Amino acid sequence: MSGRKFSRILVAIADPSAGMNKALRRASMLARDSGASIDLFNAIPSAMSEGTVHAAVEHFTRLEAEQNHRQIERTANRLRREEIVVTTKVQTGFPVHEAILRHVRLTKPDLVVIEAHKHNVFARLLLTQTDFELIRRCPVPLLIVKGRTAWRRPRILAALDPFHINDKPTALDGEIIDAARAVAAAVGGFVHAGHIYRPFGGLVPGMPISRTALAWIPAQEKAYKVDVRRRFYETLSQYGIGKNNAHLICGDPASELPVLARSMRARLVVMGAMSRSGLKRIFIGNTAEHALDSLQCDVLVVKPQS
Which CATH superfamily does the domain covering 8-145 fall into? Predict the structure, then answer.
């Protein structure tokens, strides 16, 4: 069983006029099932200006903040009628991601929920720079809502890395499974575990190789696959996940993870974000960014506990 519990959920509202958007619907479902409270938060960045222009901008920012707060309160009242405890806040004067992070540090929620938006050029749900700043810097689990389909006993895919590539700490797999189980417990879902491992890299392109060395490569590749399989299933055994809910695939993680999620009809993928060696800030590489943009279902990003 998971030791994690969602008691306070922060929903970052980008467009208060949208009412009950996907992120709010997902958060309200989690709140009803877990008994959590919801904090609705909207950030309005102030424009850089001086003199009389600055005064005019500040005036319109205040008017916008008042209007946004009224709209958020109308949405909050809908949730309150469902007996969900809801608070609201509109913040001005900071970049959006900074305002959200400040509010997270102040209120200490257990979960932050944001919504991915469709970009007209590509007609895809792509993440913005604000989204990636939150992925890198949000100290609590971050739920990125992409799917419209309601979660009904959902399949939840925990994306593991038993080899801890790119300096991922060993405990991160445990955090990923713990978060997946917390969601599953709240909504009656099922946790699956997956690992996408890269093909054997025994050959360096363009490097001359002798017949003797060439003969060793199949054996090395076989040993590599055996080791991957052994480590993966040892990890599953450690966390009590059965083989029927295990998915081990060879390929490019950035492309194969979205394929796996679609094939098993996962409603949520739980991924880890890690800190580079020697750096305190969270680093998201190209592989993870591509996978995050390509996934069609919701994504929950967790970090190792500091």
Answer: HUPs (3.40.50.620)
